[in-house]
């Protein structure tokens, strides 16, 4: 606030008509939560250094009160003290984290071998059919799942009871996926409220609000976590559920993590160090999670980056710098694994054509990407430049309850395979199925699997004919 007062004083000095100056926030208050008042769980160290919409308005009023005078209101001095206390706090100055980041940046974040070498090893290990089928991670978060979590949060259910319930959902959906005939399964993400909040709750350096809601789009709201300290790995976050799911099936279960850039872009981020360093800290913490999954025998791991594109700076000349560090952060998280471990990533909500080189530079063995809503625009862009790694183009829109027919999906697949290599192609929906109901999910996925089977049969009978 002191800095704002100084700025205001300068403006007053330069302005010929000081009385016409209007003081207002720099951006719409839509982007901050309403008030700090109900945040009784926030540590005072952090709370005192924050300002949500109401507090920002109070600050403006105090600024006006000292307009043109040298007086410094107490709110300003208190504010300065709070900010100083926060910057001196141990949580913001973890030397071990800082030096791990420096160390990681000394060498390029690269897999042991290039994709061509990994691909051969992975084919041998995984023995998947042509056009393997999979999903993006989440299965329906029904009313029952949400109410189980509420009961546990309120203390009506013990952790044991809640864990058991989550396990029973995993049991059910592993069974369903096997019945449908999917090739790579997922545990279903029933334990997660939100793909960013879940990880933030488990990573030191993050804080949570009770009512810090902001608009996401339309009537949807999110409660972004606050990254206020140096972020580091605490304990495994996803191993328990994934490992459990893997005990139930012979098919591979894909581990499921949210990537460093998506966690960064969907949180409130401290501004005292560059964003890219916060991204690297998260990336290193996630690397430990990736390694923990690998050690637990989960050797297909998806690291979701749906928010990669939305972090692009407004000025186009700044894009490349952002993309370079974003790609590097992803690679820090994912490059320390064995050649046979298959890294997947997933993206949605955006056009990809203009950042396709950076997407490729992520060096993920497989990417699943939303396409069904953009009506094949992405597919045509592969006519000019094909994609040389594993890729699954979403074959149906998960935002609608409509169950698409097998024929519709088959024609999308055939269109895509005019420009992409069938040996590298995966079949999956556009995004997670969290918002869908069970019945429509099962029906749509069954059609999807039978579209893949029909394509495989066509290929086999054609090759028999050629012989
Ligand atoms: N794995 C997440 C899910 O399935 C991905 C969500 C997303 O891309 N927004 O829900
Ligand atoms: Zn998605």
Short description:
The chain is of the alpha/beta class and 467 residues long. The protein has helices at 2-14, 44-47, 53-65, 74-88, 95-106, 115-126, 143-153, 159-180, 197-202, 239-247, 260-265, 275-295, 319-334, 356-361, 377-384, 406-416, 438-466; strands spanning 206-207, 214-217, 220-222, 226-227, 255-258, 268-269, 300-304, 342-347, 366-369, 390-394, 425-428.
Please give the structural blueprint.
Blueprint: H1 2-14, H2 44-47, H3 53-65, H4 74-88, H5 95-106, H6 115-126, H7 143-153, H8 159-180, H9 197-202, E1 206-207, E2 214-217, E3 220-222, E4 226-227, H10 239-247, E5 255-258, H11 260-265, E6 268-269, H12 275-295, E7 300-304, H13 319-334, E8 342-347, H14 356-361, E9 366-369, H15 377-384, E10 390-394, H16 406-416, E11 425-428, H17 438-466
Parallel strand pairs: 4-6, 5-7, 7-8, 8-9, 9-10, 10-11
Antiparallel strand pairs: 1-4, 2-3
Hetero groups in this structure are: glutamine, zinc ion
The proportion of residues forming helix, as a percent range, comes to 40-55%
Can you tell me the residue ranges where pLDDT is under 50 for at least 5 consecutive residues?
none
Strand numbers in spatial order across the main sheet: 5-7-8-9-10-11
CATH class of the largest domain: Alpha Beta
Tally of helical runs: 17
Q: How many beta-strand segments?
A: 11
CATH topology of the largest domain: TIM Barrel
Spell the H/E element sequence: HHHHHHHHHEEEEHEHEHEHEHEHEHEH
**Number of separate structural domains:** 2
The end-to-end span amounts to 78 Å
Shape: globular
Give the biggest sheet.
6 strands, parallel
Cα-based radius of gyration, to the nearest Å: 25 Å
Strand content: 5-15%
CATH architecture of the largest domain, by name, is Alpha-Beta Barrel
